[in-house]
Amino acid sequence: MKPHYNTPSAQSCYRATFQGATVCHSWKLIWRSWAPPKVKFFDWLACQDRCWTAERLARRGLQHHPRCLLCDQEPETIGHLMLTCPFTRQTWHEVLS
Ligand SMILES: [Zn+2]
User: Fold this and answer.
1) pLDDT, tens digit, for every residue of 40-94?
2) Ligand 1 centre from 67 Cα, in Å?
3) Which intervals hold domain Reverse transcriptase zinc-binding (predicted)?
4) Which residues contact 70 (CB under 8 A, 6 or more apart)?
5) Ordered alpha helix ranges (H), the chain
6) Contact 78, 51 (CB under 8 A)
7) Distance between Cα 33 and ligand 1 center (Å)
8) Ligand 1 midpoint to CA 10 (Å)
């Protein structure tokens, strides 16, 4: 017996879950780069906000420092650590120059 066409299948339900979602292809840049595997893995975790920053520790109710340990100016988030921390910005400037 053939299924009725209006009956949702597991596949159509799964696809509907992602309807309207933003597709990010940054994983291609990460995994196809020349960087060592441990760097790729860290970058992949950072892109998904899965690194154990103080912000993530706080979300889980775990002990954490209130501010960034590098600059002691702002809360430690992955965005701060990777982009806006003065220490990081100086490091990026020296690496890229
Ligand atoms: Zn900082």
Assistant:
1) 999 999 988 899 999 999 999 999 998 999 999 999 999 999 999 999 999 999 9
2) 8
3) 9-92
4) 81, 85, 86, 87, 88
5) 10-17, 26-31, 37-47, 54-59, 78-79, 86-96
6) yes
7) 27
8) 46
Residue 27 is encoded by which pair of tokens?
Answer: 């994983």
User: Is the distance from CB of 81 to CB of 54 less than 8 angstroms?
Assistant: no
> In angstroms, what is the span from residue 16 Cα to ligand 1's centroid?
40
Centre of ligand 1 to C-alpha 3, Å, is: 58
Residue-level pLDDT at 13:
85
CA 43–ligand 1 middle distance (angstroms):
18
Could you report the per-residue pLDDT of 28-41, keeping only the tens digit for each? Answer: 888 999 999 999 99
